UniProtKB/TrEMBL annotation:
Lineage: superkingdom: Archaea
Record SUPFAM superfamilies: P-loop containing nucleoside triphosphate hydrolases
Keyword Thylakoid: no
Keyword 4Fe-4S: no
Name of this chain's protein: GTP-binding protein
Species of origin: Candidatus Lokiarchaeum ossiferum
């Protein structure tokens, strides 16, 4: 079974490693900062995803190109509870999205840490900074995500983690069939 490469990126402390484990095993871990790519595997339906969970610290971002090279899906994690870092996050996001090697690769964007009030209050600001509807060279999907207090987090049902996982499968299948 071929593994489909997924590049998971975002600033340090955005929550990438935590979210990755949550998607994989539906449980929360106590993460350590990622210092080199964490390579992990998610099995969803009958598909295997090879997750390239990137280190977000500024001095380590130079390795990102190895993560998006030949990736099938890009997944960006924004700490939505940290508006002071939106511009920095946008700059790093753009470095990847504007890179010719990523042209056409579908993007899944996570407005993460939705359990935090400030994340919910900052959602419109985040959307204004990232302007996702202006990205037209690839399919783009966005989700509000959290690993905490899911029951009370008021995430619309069409943006839940189950739906996100199905979307990943759908993206791979549509690529396979060339649709
Ligand atoms: N409140 C809240 N905290 C979260 C959530 N997800 C992750 N965190 C916390 O955010 C911090 C950073 O999480 P990590 O998963 O290490 O972040 P990362 O993006 O992998 O960071 P680097 O490996 O340094 O790039 C940790 O303290 C997590 O417990 C969430 O959904 N809600
Ligand atoms: Mg990490």
């Amino acid at each position: 079974m071929p593994a489909h490469k997924l590049f998971l990126f975002g600033l340090d402390k955005a929550g990438k490693t935590t979210l990755s484990h949550f998607i994989k095993e539906a449980k929360e871990i106590q993460p350590r900062p990622t210092l080199a790519f964490n390579l992990d595997k998610w099995i969803i339906k009958d598909l295997e995803f090879q997750i390239w969970d990137a280190p977000g610290q500024v001095s380590l971002r130079y390795v990102w190109k190895n993560g998006f090279n030949r990736a099938k899906i890009l997944m960006f994690v924004l700490d939505c509870s940290h508006p002071e870092r939106f511009e920095e996050a946008f700059t790093e996001f753009n470095q990847v999205i504007m890179n010719a090697d990523t042209r056409g690769i579908p993007l899944v964007f996570c407005f993460h840490k939705w359990d935090i009030d400030l994340a919910q209050a900052s959602y419109n600001d985040a959307r204004a900074v990232f302007k996702l509807p202006l990205i037209t060279d690839r399919p783009v999907f966005s989700y509000r995500t959290t690993v905490k207090n899911l029951e009370t987090s008021k995430i619309p049902s069409n943006e839940d983690i189950g739906g996100l996982k199905l979307k990943l499968v759908e993206l791979i299948q549509s690529e396979r069939w060339g649709t």
